[in-house]
Peroxidase
Amino acid sequence: MGSKVAAPSTASILLLLMVAVFATLSTTHAQLSTSFYKSSCPNAVNVITSAVNTAFNKRAASAAGVLRIHFHDCFVRGCDASVLIDSPSEKDARPNLSLQGFEVIDAAKTAIEKQCPGIVSCADITAMAAQLSVKKLSGGKFTWAVPLGRRDGLTSSAADTTGKLPPPTANVATLKSIFAAVGLTTEEMVTLSGAHSVGVASCGAIQNRLTTPPDATLDPTYAAALKQQCPAGSTNKVNLDLTTPTRLDEVYYKNLQARKGLMTSDQVLQEDPETQPMVAQHTNLAVFNSKFVAAMIKMGNIGVLTGTQGQIRLNCRKFNP
Ligand code: HEM
């Protein structure tokens, strides 16, 4: 019997086309790689790790600072180090005025430029500093290998931040929509809010809650203590997590359940019917850990520049001449 080659069916042609499209899409999307500097600067990860940890040891508060810098970088024009450019720039926008920890990134950049000039981007250094911050603040429990290969953006303007960075007074609908706008889910918003398990906020960020009578969703004893720390017009700072302020852990979520979230944007996660069960899930440290690591990697992928886009800045505070 002679063999007969069947003509490809429409279905199989379609399938092949879909495979080809998917292959193209996945190569263009899988742009970052944990081994990106393997041949161009083999020591990059070690040099940056050592410089960042030295800077954290000089000033412990800078660890929470760089975690927030990475968030503010990624939500405005993607993770392209646009937030690092000195004024006039994104730094002039109100939510960025309280950013701190830039010296950590400068120290790492200076160290890496000595070894591998013009190779490692400020956006990658920022992502690595955020991972090292999380590792340190969680006592080594939360960690991951950072996908690398981001390039630095060519613009930075305060106007670009409008509507991109959530205010401390945000309601849950605003939080959901700001995160959705950068491709993050409501659950990822709840997970990433767990970063408020460390660091501080200015009294100004909670004035809206310290009214008479105080915000009904705020525990009265906690409200009284906050009023003492934040008299009217005060520029003091208060811990975001009243129980374990220097430890990245699940206690942030337990505080929310006890009406002891610091800012409106924290406490609303417990008040909303969609996010309340998510808060409950995150009170388990192992759940918070795995979800936080996954969400940080996803946040670090937002709008990245790769290939020949942008530039590799020589000084993270200035565009190259
Ligand atoms: C969900 C919406 C969010 C809002 C409304 C918000 C708002 C704020 C505000 C107002 C402060 C205090 C700034 C000050 O007055 O000094 C703060 C601090 C902080 N935020 Fe957020 N944030 C949000 C999400 C995030 C995310 C996603 C991260 C990181 C993954 C993050 C990390 C931090 C850290 C670490 C601090 C403490 C910074 C320090 O001690 O210097 N925040 N946030």
